[in-house]
């Protein structure tokens, strides 16, 4: 049973109080899956009994069953990292190398097919924005950093929301309707990522989501959606396909910007060599540094 769709279909028949609880539930799924019923009710401004009645009216035995339905819908109810790691230890390394490279090849092929018609739209939103913000926390950070770092070589109006020193609000307070947020995440979804997404939607900014499923809370609120598979024989999800999508977006952005991008890249590259940030092969570096 899809809990989101169930709420939407039953919403008109609910009492005003239950409608308020239902609307809050749809808008705060990330809090729902980590908070107790009492704590979630306090945030929603309703009594815990109201949440219990809501769950029962939707066809669930109780609030716990509704909560577990959302957890499963978000992809959070699968095999734990620890269990997957134990399986690796038990099975050993025999054929693991081939399995790993085979899984990566499949993920890349799936990403190519899934995003065949969506890449141009995503690039258009990214290119036309007054300011672009790139966001990806925890395991999604390498994808976000790669996209931001290379993009900055030829585009000034891009910022990375890195979360260092809990500084998210330094960026989210500046969101505006002319801006675009490129947000990256996969199950289990980071609470901070969803908070940034919520801030962008409130500000009217456009959202490009790189995520793992159409059911992802990132994808469901995005204006443009790109998908990457995280399947891996290892204990931890793979980000290889996500990196490949970021690299494809960057190549397309350069092609769109044309000679302006080429000039900016050449200027940046020249500065990097002249400043000593880039070192040519065979050149000795200062032993003191």
Structural summary, described in words:
Residues 1-77 form the HTH rpiR-type domain. One of its GO terms (molecular function) is carbohydrate derivative binding. With 289 residues, the chain is an alpha/beta fold. It has 15 helices and five strands. The protein has two domains: 3-73, Arc Repressor Mutant, subunit A; 102-274, Glucose-6-phosphate isomerase like protein, domain 1 (Rossmann fold). It has a five-stranded parallel beta sheet with strand order 2-1-3-4-5, sandwiched between helices. Strand 4, helix 13 and strand 5 (224-227) form a beta-alpha-beta unit.
Task: Kindly list the characteristics that best describe this protein.
289 residues, alpha/beta, Arc Repressor Mutant, subunit A, Rossmann fold, 2 domains, 5-stranded parallel sheet, 15 helices, transcription, carbohydrate derivative binding, DNA binding, MurR/RpiR family transcriptional regulator
What is the fold's blueprint, element by element?
Elements: H1 3-10, H2 16-27, H3 29-32, H4 37-44, H5 48-57, H6 63-73, H7 81-91, H8 96-114, H9 119-128, E1 132-135, H10 141-151, E2 158-161, H11 168-172, E3 180-185, H12 191-203, E4 206-211, H13 217-220, E5 224-227, H14 240-257, H15 259-274
Parallel strand pairs: 1-2, 1-3, 3-4, 4-5
């Amino acid at each position: 049973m899809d809990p989101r769709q169930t709420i939407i279909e039953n919403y008109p028949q609910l009492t005003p109080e239950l409608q308020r609880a239902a609307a809050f539930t749809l808008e705060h799924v990330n809090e729902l899956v980590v908070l107790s019923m009492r704590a979630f009710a306090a945030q929603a401004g309703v009594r815990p009994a109201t949440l219990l009645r809501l769950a029962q009216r939707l066809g669930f035995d109780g609030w716990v069953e509704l909560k577990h339905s959302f957890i499963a819908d978000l992809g959070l109810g699968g095999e734990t990292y620890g269990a997957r790691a134990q399986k690796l230890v038990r099975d050993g390394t025999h054929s693991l190398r081939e399995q790993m490279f085979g899984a990566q090849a499949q993920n890349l092929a799936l990403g190519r097919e899934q995003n065949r018609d969506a890449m141009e739209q995503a690039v258009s939103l990214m290119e036309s924005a007054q300011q672009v913000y790139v966001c990806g926390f925890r395991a999604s950070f390498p994808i976000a950093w790669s996209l931001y770092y290379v993009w900055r070589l030829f585009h000034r109006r891009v910022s990375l929301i890195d979360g260092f020193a809990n500084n998210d609000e330094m960026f989210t307070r500046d969101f505006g309707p002319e801006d675009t947020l490129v947000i990256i995440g996969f199950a289990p979804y980071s609470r901070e990522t969803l908070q940034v997404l919520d801030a962008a939607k409130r500000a009217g900014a456009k959202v490009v989501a790189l995520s793992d499923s159409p059911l992802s809370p990132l994808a469901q609120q995005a204006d443009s959606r790109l998908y990457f598979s995280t399947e891996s024989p290892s204990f931890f999800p793979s980000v290889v396909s996500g990196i490949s999508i970021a690299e494809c977006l960057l190549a397309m952005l350069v092609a769109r910007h044309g000679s302006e991008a080429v000039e900016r890249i050449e200027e940046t590259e020249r500065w990097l060599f002249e400043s000593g940030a880039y070192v040519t092969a065979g050149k000795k570096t200062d032993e003191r540094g």
